[in-house]
């Protein structure tokens, strides 16, 4: 199993975590980089994986740094399902078209004022792109398992933070990453993966021969390396189990 951090690394924005199992590629969250220009410019960079090769997206919640890249992902070739809670889907129907509208307005203003080096300045995506992306949404209630393929199953758990926000537990038969190692919280409460607490092989211990390669594709290597996971951070190694799970959110 390969877990790559495509965003929310060395920053709290642009949340994207790509889980690869050999036959499946699942993207957890699909957020925009926001804030400083150096972060926003990352929205224009190509992802290290072709959107068409991603099998599914799973959203923790609607905030644009977790969902706002979705229209561009669909525009660039993603055609799989986007799993989310009903509350997240309802809010996506408002926020994503509005985000596209604002992208268009920003480009139009740059063209009127002439402050962009691009001639003409273009929006990252349009309102129409966002409306098209909404067709990919598939809703699942809290507490109900859903199938991600290749023996992977996921479940949404209430997370607070905003209407529809969820933690996501993913289970499979060949691997495990416990939530104490790789949790990304909508509320921003977790320190895991931050500069002061990087996810590295020294942060987690394991007795399981199955390993998870954890890489940081967006942040320059803070979380790069191979880590074997079975027990909680700072705890005793746990015996390997036949059915394993980990959590996002």
Bulk shape: globular
- Helical fraction equals 10-25%
Fourth CATH level, the homologous superfamily: Ribonuclease Z/Hydroxyacylglutathione hydrolase-like
The structural class is alpha/beta
Biggest β-sheet: strands ordered side by side in the sheet:
6-5-4-3-2-1-10-11
Number of helices: 5
By CATH, the topology is Metallo-beta-lactamase, Chain A
Q: Secondary-structure map with pairings?
A:
Layout: E1 2-5, E2 17-20, E3 25-28, H1 37-40, E4 56-58, H2 64-67, H3 70-75, E5 82-84, H4 86-113, H5 127-134, E6 137-139, E7 145-149, E8 152-158, E9 166-172, E10 212-216, E11 225-227, E12 244-248
Parallel strand pairs: 1-10, 3-4, 4-5, 5-6
Antiparallel strand pairs: 1-2, 2-3, 7-8, 8-9, 9-12, 10-11
Helix pairs in contact: 4-5
Short description:
The protein is an alpha/beta fold. The protein has helices at 37-40, 64-67, 70-75, 86-113, 127-134, and strands spanning 2-5, 17-20, 25-28, 56-58, 82-84, 137-139, 145-149, 152-158, 166-172, 212-216, 225-227, 244-248. It is built from five helices and twelve strands.
Structural descriptors:
12 strands; 20% helix; 249 residues; alpha/beta; 5 helices; eight-stranded mixed β-sheet; four-stranded antiparallel β-sheet; Metallo-beta-lactamase, Chain A; globular
Description:
This protein has helices at residues 37-40, 64-67, 70-75, 86-113, 127-134; strands at 2-5, 17-20, 25-28, 56-58, 82-84, 137-139, 145-149, 152-158, 166-172, 212-216, 225-227, 244-248. The protein is α/β, with parallel strands linked by helices and 249 residues long. The chain has one domain: Ribonuclease Z/Hydroxyacylglutathione hydrolase-like (Metallo-beta-lactamase, Chain A). The strands form 2 sheets. Strands 6-5-4-3-2-1-10-11 form an 8-stranded mixed β-sheet. A 4-stranded antiparallel β-sheet has the order 7-8-9-12, with no helix packed on it. Strand 3, helix 1 (37-40) and strand 4 form a beta-alpha-beta unit. The radius of gyration is 18 Å and the shape is globular. The protein starts with a strand and ends with a strand. Mean pLDDT is 78; it is low at 176-194 and 199-244.
């Amino acid at each position: 199993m390969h877990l790559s951090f495509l965003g929310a690394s060395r920053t709290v924005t642009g949340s994207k975590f790509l889980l690869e199992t050999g036959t499946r590629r699942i993207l957890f969250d699909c957020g925009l980089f926001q804030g400083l220009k150096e972060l926003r410019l990352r929205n224009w960079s190509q992802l290290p994986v072709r959107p068409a090769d991603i099998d599914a997206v799973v959203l923790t919640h609607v905030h644009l740094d977790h969902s706002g890249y979705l229209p561009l992902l669909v525009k660039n070739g993603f055609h799989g399902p986007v799993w989310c809670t009903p509350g997240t889907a309802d809010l996506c129907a408002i926020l994503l078209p509005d985000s596209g509208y604002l992208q268009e307005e920003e480009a139009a203003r740059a063209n009127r004022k002439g402050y962009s080096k691009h001639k003409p300045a273009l929006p990252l995506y349009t309102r129409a792109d966002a409306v098209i992306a909404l067709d990919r949404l598939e809703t699942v209630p809290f507490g109900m398992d859903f199938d991600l393929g290749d023996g992977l199953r996921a479940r949404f758990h209430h997370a607070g933070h905003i209407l529809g926000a969820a933690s996501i537990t993913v289970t499979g038969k060949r691997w495990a990453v416990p939530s104490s190692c790789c949790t990304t919280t909508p509320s921003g409460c977790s320190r895991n993966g931050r500069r002061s607490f990087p996810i590295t092989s020294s942060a987690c211990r394991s007795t399981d021969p199955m390993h998870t390669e954890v890489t940081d594709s967006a942040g320059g290597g803070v979380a790069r390396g191979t880590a074997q996971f079975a027990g909680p951070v700072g705890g005793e190694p746990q015996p390997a189990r036949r059915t394993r799970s980990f959590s996002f959110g």
